[in-house]
Design goal:
Layout: E1 3-6, E2 13-15, E3 18-21, H1 23-32, E4 40-44, E5 50-58, E6 63-71, E7 80-85, H2 92-103, E8 107-112, H3 122-139, E9 146-147, E10 151-152, E11 164-168, H4 170-176, E12 179-180, H5 181-186, E13 193-198, H6 206-214, E14 218-221, H7 229-244
Parallel strand pairs: 1-4, 7-8, 7-13, 8-9, 8-10, 11-13, 11-14, 12-14
Antiparallel strand pairs: 2-3, 3-6, 4-5, 5-6
Helix pairs in contact: 2-3, 2-7
Length: 245
């Protein structure tokens, strides 16, 4: 299998038919993969640009690559799905972000809630973005899922203009009625932009539920069982993205 490498514009250059690969990706090629001149590579820049190339010359601080073939990105979903969620703790953060990136989600927004068990500070956001790169390399995506900075739940609606919004919360269902996946997928045409919102381990507070309902979120039913944060996000993302694809 040809190895995929992310051409990070912060440290690398993509000029026409030539690429200078540096930083972590160069380290991966030279030290981890033990790459050599003549190796075939697949390159992507995170915005949809993708190409095949040949390693031409190996230097102390980077790799010179000659592009041999460019290709159009045809695997992105027609649905721009945003997943907003309280951030789970520990390794479950990586699992959540990797699976959302693999499924084809466009954006992940960490949301600060009263019962949040983890916070998305700058260091955490940068780590999540590295997970996205690794997932893109593995699954074949050429567009990186965006990791947004953490947003307080009371201001989440300010980041969701022109979105159809669903709330993953079983308590709300009994209060205001529910929307099922069958109703969504067999009803009106699929919207171009959808946001799904999941809460923390301790669930939303009543005040938080009221806030998001006023902001236009519609309760969405994922079944009778109580799901963990990452399970709910991934399950809902799979429903919407598989239908859109």
């Amino acid at each position: 299998m040809t190895d995929r490498f992310f051409v990070d514009p912060a440290v690398s250059r993509w000029d026409g038919d030539a690429v200078w690969l540096a930083g972590d990706e160069f380290h991966h090629f030279s030290k981890v993969m033990r790459g050599k001149v003549g190796n075939a590579l697949v390159l992507f820049d995170g915005t949809g640009k993708c190409a095949r190339g040949i390693a031409e010359s190996l230097h102390k601080d980077g790799l010179q690559i000659r592009i041999t073939q460019t290709s159009a990105d045809e695997i992105e979903s027609t649905l721009r799905l945003t997943v907003a969620s309280a951030l789970p703790k520990g390794d479950r953060q990586r699992f959540l972000v990797e699976k959302l990136a693999e499924l084809g989600a466009a954006r992940f927004i960490p949301v600060q809630m009263e019962r949040s068990v983890a916070r998305a500070n700058d260091a955490v956001v940068q780590r999540l973005r590295r997970y996205v790169i690794e997932a893109a390399k593995q699954c074949g995506r050429n567009v990186l899922m965006e990791i947004a900075n953490e947003v307080p739940i009371g201001k989440l609606h300010e980041h969701l203009a022109m979105q159809t919004k669903y709330l993953l919360h079983p308590v709300a269902l009994g209060n205001v009625g529910q929307t099922t996946s069958r109703q969504v997928l067999t009803g009106i045409p699929m919207p171009e932009k959808i946001t799904i919102l999941a809460g923390p381990e301790g669930s939303f507070t009543e005040q938080e539920v009221a806030i998001v309902l006023r902001a236009g979120f519609v309760p969405f039913d994922l079944g009778k069982r109580i799901l963990r944060t990452e399970t709910a996000c991934i399950a809902a993302a799979a429903v919407f993205l598989s239908f859109a694809d």
